[in-house]
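Anyone else keep sequences and structure tokens together like this?

Example one:
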Amino acid sequence: MSEEFLSFIGDRMLTVMYFDLSRYVIAAGLMTGALLLFRGWATRKRIQKRRAVRKDYTREIASSLRTVFVFALMSLAVLGLRETGLIALKLETFTALTIIWQTVVIVIAHDAYFYWMHRALHHRRLFKPTHLHHHKSRTPTPWAAYSFSSWEAVTEAAFVPLFLLVTSQLGIAYAGLAIFLFLWHMIFRNVIGHLGVELYPAGWTENRFTQWWNTTTHHDLHHSSGNHNFGLYFTWWDRWMGTEHPRYHEEFRRVTRAKQAAPDAVAA
């Protein structure tokens, strides 16, 4: 390896590690703090009766640190490909309209990628070496968002460089701010999916304007029951492919219409 390349890696590795770690810690930490601050409300909106224990949190955080490292390597790959001209990633100022449509496009593309990648990892020959580790969080917590095996972390992180390679070949220069917004959207939606507490109001899944937007119950059912609900941001792929959990709407109604918990239950 040339000294120039090693210098490039060394200068940027700590930066991308810090960025990927901070996204995870900020998103999971803020959501954890909110659940503690609004404990009574969170108790009423809990999806599962079972609660995660200390070893669950320890496993989730430890494996998430490994995932952060893998994500950082992929971020370095993107920067390296940008240096070679294979990826057209622009850090200059773009119009607000460009930032909006590029962010929307990458979110929709990622949802499609995630759905099919996720279903593939559930194949009987792939599940144990790749995705089983994530499903050890049967009752997920906000810290489970990045709790992946090394193999799954690679498949998760591969999306951004692959997407940018494709868009660059199509002659589309992506804005750095659009990628930035996508990455923050991704981690917060991921954490919300593993929250264990339903944030969305009653009627959300039955309203034609909101029913396509994923809820915490949607992904929580995936963790508790297995081969359903593979989508990340939206419900449409699960609907189109017939993989939505048959009790999804019933479970959402049960959780969102829960009555005030007894004082002793809240205190517990």
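And example two:
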Amino acid sequence: MTEFTELIPGLPEELSLECLSRLHFSTHQVASRVCRRWREILQSRDFYYHRKQTGHTHKAACLIQSLPVQNDADGPKPSGLPAYGVSVFDPVTGNWDRINRVPKYPDGLPLFCQLTSSEGKLVLMGGWDPVSYEPVKDVFVYDFTTRSWRKGKDMPEARSFFAAGELDGRVYVAGGHDESKNALSSARVYDVRSDEWTELARMSLERDECQGVVIGSEFWVVGGYRTESQGSFEGSAESYVPETGEWRQVEDAWRVGQCPSSCVGVAKDGKLFCWAESDSAVRVGTCGITLGARTFVAGSTYQGGPQGLFLVEGQNGKLTRMDVPDEFSGFVQSGCCVEI
């Protein structure tokens, strides 16, 4: 690891580094203004992994969530699809926050965009332009230290409703459909540090509206359907093993005909389950995000009903409803865990 020296005058190097490591991620932006050396350390990859190895990172839920509607009492009611932003929930402190809007999309995120993480950063990909509804190739990376977005290298092709997940700092995408609504079997990996995309081997099946899940050292693509059988979801999954560069098909991994979007959970035995079936309170519009020993779950009792936000302790624990500030009570479309 890079040698850190003279971090805090009068303190040994190891103790100074320990002090910085214990800062909550929400303070990093202010701390980086202390001096150039602190800024270099707080933004370095070495420091991130040092914090992770010493247990000082936090697993937060980052959510694609509908934004509050601002309208006058006498004004017209809002129409059309809601606008979405990125909300952050820290289960350690119970705090909620909202990330600055992407400069290219000041009025709301691309519809149905994908959100994942890489080494403590957020990666936002794809979706539909919120005005034209045309699919986009955009990639944006959010740094929690600088609290700013940067433009990443575009996805090589526009794809919608694809699987995404992070493994060893790299972001994997697979499946979905192209601009002509053809289901895809292709897959790629994005290296956030080098800002480069690499093509991977194709899956054995086309998988539209699939879900990405990381299990151990493998990237899984769950369910989905083929072009000629639109809406008829597969019960199989495919697992990509980076060491071999090959896909492994897993039969009977998921219920046939069930949409896996945002609701796939992984049990202790490694088998997949559906969070929508865990409790009647979250049976519709379900979103489950594992945060270490806890899981964030959102959902409704019935179609069109109010969405509740819950925390679950362990995988078989009961849902505990959270008291959420009004500005963070909007519909949760999807999300991911970010270890910051």
